[in-house]
Amino acid sequence: MRSADRSGIRWLLAELPELTASGVLSAEAAEALRQHYAAQKPDEPRRLGFILSAILGSLLVGAGVILLVAHNWDFLGRPVRCAIAFAPLVLTQALGFFVLLRRSGSAAWRESAAILNVAAIGTAIALVSQTYQIQGDFASFILVWMLLALPVVYAFNTGLGLAAYFVGVTVWVLASKSGPVLSIWPNDLWGWPLLALALPAFNMLLRRNAKGYAALIAITALAVAAACSLGQTDDMGAQSFWRCSFAAFWTLVYLVGAVSFRDWRTTRPHPFVAAGWIGILSLAIFLSFQNSWRTSRWQNAVDLVPRHYPDVLAGGIQAAWVLAALLFTAYAIWKVREVNLAPAAFVPFTLASWAIAKRFGNPLVAALLINFFMLGLGVFTLLRGIRAGRAVEANLGMVVIAALAVARFFDSDIEFVVRGLAFIAIGLGFLVTNLIVFKRKARA
Amino acid sequence: MKYWRLILFALVALAQLGVPGSSIWKREQTLRRGAVWKFRTAPVDPVDAFRGRYVSLEFEAETHEVVPPANAVYGQPVFLVLRGDPEGFAVIDQVLSTPPPGDDFLKARLTGKTVSLPFDKYWVTERDAPAAEAAYRLQSTRDRRNAFVTVRVLRGDAAIEQLYLDGQPLGDYLRAVK
Fold this sequence. Notes:
heterodimer; A: about 450 residues; mainly alpha; 18 helices; about 75% helix; flat; B: alpha+beta
């Protein structure tokens, strides 16, 4: 029994007395249900608690060792300090072999051994660097650390270790940007192959338990790492195209949550659905202002014609994100009808706006298109909610329209009278919608 | 199923030991057999002088213009041949694009008409850090050029041995001041 379904079971068990009382279920059937689920329940929470406390303990010990090492004990000679650097590494490696041989079935042992080993690698490299005054910037330290940690993720099949690797790649991508000489170097793009190296492990994790919290943490870390890498890539490729590549990014976040994880929990959607909505709305509001399409970068040479290898490659990666979002949308339209796919229209709209703004240098049409998208998204979601009698969805549609209205409230290009009338209309819309939805619900 | 994990972990365990191990080996070679050079440190921006638990170092040799090799581009690695000035401090003699014969040269990075030396940090203990920062700032101001580091150089590798303030190793200097 998946831990994810437990809230549903609890709900069902709570409903049983009422169902028996109203005669929907016989007392025997209710008792049979109760026993069926009770038989599978007991050891789950205890195991999760054990895993969590094992991981937390390992993290604390690892962090403590790192802090001790950071103190830099100068009264110890070089050989002693080297021995101290290697001791935790060798110990965690011994623990690792023990776990792989004897405890490979236990998630708690595997996660703890992997995390301790990963912490010990960083400790060993850092302490040796201090002892021998070995130079080198923070970014290359992180890179070596992550490359030595990645095989551990595979060997121990660890979800948390995978998330830590993604976090490490994010740190590396950000650190290599602010480095003294690397700011415009092509190796900014190396974040992508680094992320790709971990994808098989990520796939294994999803196959094992896509609905678990380890998968949620790992996919969140992956999304953050991808966003940071995409930001760097946008800087190198066609710079003005970031509008489209991030529209694609948020659309993919939404689609992954709404389509790939559509049966994540029986009671609530995957967190990526909310994240996707917030991302799409925020970016759409920003792009609905004419000012966000007035930019001097249209004339940027890099923007017009990428000239050499890293720029072209970066442009290709940007385009690949947009293509991926469009393909995923097409797949969802073809296969998954029950999901609200209107937010995915953000990508074609942004693409059209970008092309128009770039070709004609006219911000008005570009901004109008995005306004039209938001209005359409709001109205569609609102009607979808009303039709299905879902108050949350109907109100979400109203929130989109209201967000658009607030954005226009601060838009100095529109007259006060027009704005005032629009606001009254939207306020009335809110009232009427809720009235309709709740009346329908009451009637049903 | 289990065996590939064991083999993978055995390999990565070797690599985990090998990476710090090889840096130790390389450094030990340089520290034992390398030639000793003294580099005078130039004043640094006081705000940026200290980050975490290391003293950030800048060197006079990095401020002097050099003659780069032909067809050199910004940021490319170069090999430096050193010579001593009358006071015994290292001065860059030649900048080459290929390693010269012999052991006594170091690898650096070309930054236009100057070079960036491969060392810019001196790790100190947490306890000594604030005192070291204050002392270093005092000793490397423009009129009191009394700070230098000794560096062992062997076939491109450069290992900082000691930071000297006012002619004494940092530890001795801090103890004397206290």
